[in-house]
Amino acid sequence: MTALPVEVRGLVFTYPDGHRALDGLDLAVPAGERVALLGPNGAGKTTFALHCNGIHAPDEGSVTIGDLRVAEPDLPEVRRRVGLVFQGADDQLFMPSVREDVAFGPANLGLRGDELDRRVATALAAVGADGLEDRAPHHLSGGEKRRVALATVLAMEPAVLVLDEPTSGLDPAGRRELVEVLQSLPQTQLVITHDLPFALELCGRAVVIDGGRVVADGPTATLLGDQELLRAHRMELPYGFDPTVAIRTR
Fold this sequence. Notes:
Blueprint: E1 6-14, E2 20-29, E3 34-38, H1 45-51, E4 60-65, E5 68-69, H2 75-81, E6 82-85, H3 98-108, H4 113-126, H5 142-154, E7 160-164, H6 172-184, E8 188-192, H7 196-202, E9 205-210, E10 213-219, H8 220-224, H9 227-232, H10 243-248
Parallel strand pairs: 3-8, 3-9, 6-7, 7-8
Antiparallel strand pairs: 1-2, 1-4, 4-5, 9-10
């Protein structure tokens, strides 16, 4: 499936305890763009991610993937279009082997035989995990688990990827490998991260979410170079990291 645009209009969501996690969030992402979603804990980023494939339903507003609104009766098709990669890779790996994990989603769609084998092989190759098919997921390294979790989503051939803290728990080599994988993929990507150098390396555009709204939107290097913006929204670059220098040396 080719990449599709994402459009969010006036998204509002309140949890049962009365906490309003999203308060009129607006966002438009063209097909094939990679966008970093930045902001402090509790800003509404993960809640927004759970609206992208209908895990949460909004109180007000809408999310549209391509030409489909994320709502009944189109949720089955929306969930084929949107692949959500959770922060904990173990949440997506539960079968005895990598092959079975990656095959699980397409098999539930009714794929069998050669077509199912093709989906599995293509997804594992895309993330550089071919050769791991017969391994038990719980014996993989953190970086390997992260790539296999991504492969389980890619096997569904989504048009949009939503990734929640994809570098969590990765060592520097695993982080670099993940950047290379994500840069090679054609899907529209929404990347929730507190890893600001990772956001700069992967995404040309970033949005800052706080209080359930988009409070800043622009080139990632520009936003990360705005110290007042970072302080106001509890974001902090690593000591000595200069985004203006980093972007020139990429």
